[in-house]
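Consider the tokenized backbone below.
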């Protein structure tokens, strides 16, 4: 396994692999790797000749009062995980290497970037779309793997990839959960034991909602889940919305494939989760 810290160097290596006919898989991450990331790595190792994991806590996707500085950075452990899981290259650039002072270009995915999480984190998806498009160009990836926990992110990246004619194929991967239902997230490390227990109500409410989706009205399904979420002590709901799994438009009674997606603060930690609901 090779660790590369410079974008141009990785791009040169990636081009050589492309010329050799190797297929390249990319797993973009911000590090603090967990079983969710490992499931993406495993898929790429199986599908692709070369697997690249990028580890970059991307400053441009954090708002001014968000957790950029406190975001966990367990570099040594992350590298061990990558090595153990047969990653070929870890791309670990500095902020200056990705976003030098004179960087002026940003990618925006209109409308989709402004709803749900985007309504509460105005610069977030512009930062995500920009860094991911840079990573696609740098890595020359044939396939890029994204977890479905960040469902809005996945949809935005799919749209960006289509609109900007990237050759990279997006591979959506299922949410990985703890046995108790909690969706894995690097931010779970912020939760106290008590908050972790309270957080289980999020996946529980979603699971119940998905069961009821076939027989009850959308409003009834949503209301019941929201009431349950509201009862979590010391919590705040940013949003709870049932949207079309295709384009994030509000679901209605004719929507066959919907996603119930929520962002909830438990104490000082903002958790997102979602569940697919089919008729
Ligand atoms: O999902 C994440 O960890 C990040 O948003 C990503 C896709 C690596 C871009 O920084």
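A designed sequence for it:
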């Amino acid at each position: 396994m090779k660790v590369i810290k410079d974008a141009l160097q990785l791009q040169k290596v990636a081009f050589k692999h492309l010329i050799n006919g190797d297929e390249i898989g990319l797993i973009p991450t911000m590090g603090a790797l967990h079983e969710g990331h490992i499931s993406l790595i495993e898929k790429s190792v199986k599908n692709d000749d070369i697997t690249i994991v990028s580890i970059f806590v991307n400053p441009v996707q954090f708002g001014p009062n968000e957790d950029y500085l406190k975001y966990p950075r367990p570099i040594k452990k992350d590298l061990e995980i990558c090595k153990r899981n047969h990653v070929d290259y870890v791309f670990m650039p500095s902020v200056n290497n990705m976003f030098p002072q004179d960087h002026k270009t940003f990618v925006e995915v209109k409308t989709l970037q402004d709803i749900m999480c985007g309504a509460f984190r105005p610069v977030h998806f512009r930062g995500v779309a920009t860094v991911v498009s840079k990573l696609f160009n740098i890595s020359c990836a044939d396939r890029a793997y994204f977890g479905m926990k960040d469902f809005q992110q996945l949809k935005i990246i799919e749209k960006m990839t289509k609109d900007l004619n990237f050759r990279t194929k997006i591979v959506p991967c299922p949410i990985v959960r703890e046995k108790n239902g909690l969706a894995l997230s690097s931010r779970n490390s912020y939760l106290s034991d008590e908050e972790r227990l309270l957080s289980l109500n999020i996946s529980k409410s979603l699971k119940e909602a998905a069961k009821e989706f076939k027989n009850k009205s959308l409003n009834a399904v949503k209301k019941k889940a929201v009431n349950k979420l509201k009862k979590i002590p010391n919590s705040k709901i940013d949003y709870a919305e049932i949207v079309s799994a295709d384009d994030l438009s509000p679901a209605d009674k004719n929507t066959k494939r919907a996603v119930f997606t929520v962002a909830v603060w438990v104490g000082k930690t903002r958790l997102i989760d979602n569940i697919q609901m089919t008729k």
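The CA atoms of residues 109 and 162 lie 11 Å apart.
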